[in-house]
Amino acid sequence: MQKLEVQRTDDGSATLFVPELDEHYHSVKGAYTEALHIYRDCAYLHAAESIGERPLRLLEIGFGTGLNAAVTAMAATTERPVHYITLEKYPVEPELIASLDYEHIVDATLLTAIHAAPWEEPTAITPHFTLEKRCCDLLASPLPDAIDIVYFDAFAPEKQPEMWSAEIFARIYQAMRPAGVLTTYCAKGAIRRLLQATGFSVERLAGPIGGKREILRATKGE
């Protein structure tokens, strides 16, 4: 992976910047705010209310700094345990993760356990949150099945167009259970139409306060 730099976002939380791609891991308007609104609230909490009472299986495209995993682990309950599977081609070095100071905004014990968890095997972070980190390339790796929730958090389409293809979305759609939901920060019309062509029902939702005006939530039919 290219050299990474730590930068502060507008809500005070940190993100990583990739100079070679001119791209950030999170919104510059607020890394923590983005994780809470787009992924935890609009995907995980929404699915927990709209899907039956079974345990939830969640797939994250792009583990990155682990912030999305941390806010989800904090929200998981014994009533709705979560198996959180995350795919990451370029794991971030532990020293760089430590420099982000996320222990000031999320549960430090959970955060430590998330980053200490071994790759390639399911690990119980809490009695109701199991983490499975897979170091792999989405383009060449099989997807887990029976997925209820997808956090689609790849780099922007103009930076990684291969990650936003009809083929990728079709594979994700097939891996999802009926009524499953996918959220992404990208609200471009081309991406909305791709999701619709795949078979999803797509909503434009308000973005995070102070951030993007709109985000997308896609739902697979029953």
Stretches where pLDDT falls below 50 for ≥5 residues? none
* Biggest sheet descriptor: 8 strands, mixed
Task: Give the overall average pLDDT.
Answer: 96
CATH architecture title? 3-Layer(aba) Sandwich
User: How are strands sequenced across the largest beta sheet?
Assistant: 6-7-5-4-8-9-11-10
- Per DSSP, what share of the residues sits in E-state strands of 2 or more residues? 25-35%
How many angstroms separate the termini?
39 Å
C-alpha-based Rg, rounded: 16 Å
Beta strand count: 11
List the helices and strands and how they pair.
Elements: E1 5-8, E2 14-18, E3 23-24, H1 31-50, E4 56-61, H2 67-75, E5 82-88, H3 94-98, H4 108-116, E6 123-126, E7 129-135, E8 147-152, H5 166-175, E9 176-184, H6 189-198, E10 201-206, E11 214-219
Parallel strand pairs: 4-5, 4-8, 5-7, 8-9
Antiparallel strand pairs: 1-2, 2-3, 6-7, 9-11, 10-11
Helix pairs in contact: 1-2, 5-6
Give an account of the 3D structure:
28% of the residues lie in helices and 28% in strands. With 222 residues, it is α/β, with parallel strands linked by helices. The protein has a single domain (31-219), classed as Rossmann fold. Helix 1 (31-50) packs across helix 2 (67-75) and helix 5 packs across helix 6.
Could you write a compact summary of the structure shown?
With 222 residues, the protein is α/β, with parallel strands linked by helices. It has helices at 31-50, 67-75, 94-98, 108-116, 166-175, 189-198; strands at 5-8, 14-18, 23-24, 56-61, 82-88, 123-126, 129-135, 147-152, 176-184, 201-206, 214-219.
